[in-house]
Amino acid sequence: MPIGSSIGRLEKGWYDGFMQNGAAGVRSLFLWLFLILLLTACTASADTQSALPTQAVAAVLPDTQTPTAALDPALVPPTWTPAPGATSAAAGNFTELSSLGPTNTPTVTRFIPTNTPRPTRTNTPTVTPLPVTPTPYVSYIPDLPPSTDLGPSKMGLHIIRANDANILEFVKQGHPAVIKAVDNFGYLAEVKAASPRTIVVGRINYPQQLYTGSPEEAAQKFVTDQLDQYLINTAVDYWEGWNEPDPNLDNMPWYARFEQERIRLLAQHGLKAAIGGFATGVPEMDEFALFLPAIETAKEYKGILSLHEYGAPDMTYLYGEPLPGFPAYPDRGSLTFRYRWYYREFLEPLGLVIPLVISEAGIDGIIGNRPGPDGFGWADFQDYWVQQGWADNGVDAFIKQLAWYDNGVREDGYVIGFTVFTAGGHGQWSKYDINPILPQLIVYVRSQQ
User: Fold this and answer.
1) pLDDT of the chain along its 449 residues, tens only?
2) Dist. CA 444–CA 437, nearest whole Å
3) Can you tell me the distance from the alpha carbon of 246 to that of 252, in angstroms, rounded to the nearest whole number?
4) CB 224 within 8 A of CB 288
């Protein structure tokens, strides 16, 4: 509604009220005069304003072709950066446009990883591995030259039972360097009568081999329990103690003291000891070093060392292999000819060489992690040896291995001899029994005299 129309209505209302109400109209008069003055002031103010509402100025980006001097800095948005090549044409009354950006923009240092490998994806096809075929074992088959310069054979017999006439025949014709007897000793008088220079080593099975208590007291009980047998079997030259002990580093000092006391106790009765009796493949070199006190005592009392050496699937297995911490040598092994490590690394340098008897030797299939077929004694491997090319038959193949070992031990003057396990084998030892091949063994030892 126009402001003039509003004022006309107010004037007409005041006049009508004054005329009708008298004194009350006077008060109304002053009220209406105030209102008229207020409306008049508002009307004057309104006449000085634009009739249209104020419009906001739109931000228009300048044409990049327009010289910078013609640009009004007030029209430049704060985030705008001039196009490349745009310069300030006037040294002007305002700052160059390039300075209109933020002045506190942080400097960003590029992150470069240091020596961090990044995986590289390749399209590697999935391959199903083929079954691994282990390299077949090939026997080391030595060339056995004539051994006339080596002296007589050092092959002997390990005997469980003297139940074959060829056992005594072997003694009579072969005059073996050594015989090993276990538990049964009555026939040994005949052995000594037939071959007085044959050395006899005896052993009595003992039910307990425990590294407990005092080693000296254990040795005293051991000797006491067997002394009667020692005294009545005078054909035995050396008595063994425990069978195939395998002391570790913790037990070897105990066992050395046990053997030292046993040596002394036997000496009190005019008897001699064969000490050690170690199983095939033990002890390790650091363990043997702890056994040296027993070697010293044996040397003092004219005792000997005994141990066992087997191989499988043939006697040359692991020949030339090193022992832990030592280099390989072509004439030593970790099974057969293991004794050379003890003598060459310890006993010879220390002046502790004592005679040695390998009181069990041959084939023993219970050796762990070996190649070849399942089996126990020599009889189980005959076909395998033929396949390997040792000989045309299993007996000749076995004798050829024994001859190889015999040639080796004859090179070492401290070795008295070795005994093939075993004559008189029965029960669990039937596969080891050499009674069937005693005639061939007689032929061999006679050929070496």
Assistant:
1) 444 433 333 343 434 443 444 444 444 444 445 544 444 444 444 444 433 333 333 333 334 344 434 444 443 343 333 444 443 333 333 333 333 333 343 343 333 333 433 344 344 445 565 565 668 899 999 987 656 678 999 999 999 999 999 999 999 999 999 999 999 999 999 999 999 999 999 999 999 999 999 999 999 999 999 999 999 999 999 999 999 999 999 999 999 999 999 999 999 999 999 999 999 999 999 999 999 999 999 999 999 999 999 999 999 999 999 999 999 999 999 999 999 999 999 999 999 999 999 999 999 999 999 999 999 999 999 999 999 999 999 999 999 999 999 999 999 999 999 999 999 999 999 999 999 999 999 999 999 98
2) 11
3) 9
4) no
> At 420, is the secondary structure helix, strand, or coil?
strand
Query: Domain residue spans in the chain?
Result: 154-447
CATH topology of domain 154-447: TIM Barrel (3.20.20)
The whole-angstrom separation of Cα 378 and Cα 279 is 18
pTM of the prediction? 0.71
Concatenate the DSSP letters of all residues of 274-319 into one string.
EEEEEPTT---HHHHHTTHHHHHHHHHTT-EEEEEEEESSSTTTTB
Closest CA to 240 of 207, 266, 211: 266
Query: Side chain identity at 265, as an amino acid letter?
Result: L
DSSP state of 416: E
